[in-house]
Amino acid sequence: QVQLVESGGGLVQAGGSLRLSCAASGRTFSSYGMGWFRQAPGKEREFVAAISWSGGSISYYADSVKGRFTISRDNAKNTVYLQMNSLKPEDTAVYYCAAAPCGLASNTDKSYDYWGQGTQVTVSS
Asked: Is the pLDDT of residue 28 over 80?
């Protein structure tokens, strides 16, 4: 099975930056679509960003993060990244990495079969 491990979360001042990483197991990482979701306390999980398999790389972003966040992947390292710039307090949440065996980038969690355990991002005012 696929194992996903997020890292890079932490505490940052508003306007600052963080880079999240998601390390994946398996030899077929390059064929998976990858996504980032987040969930704040008391709120439902929401889509953040997604990227298709590298052979036809296409990225999608939630309107709330467009222009500030960038998703990328390094298939040689079995790793997907989320570069987060100009962070706002409303970005505070647990961020989850997810993998879709179909290889497509999707904004719905139903498309993803594998999930990491999450990494906390806290943005202070």
From this structure: no
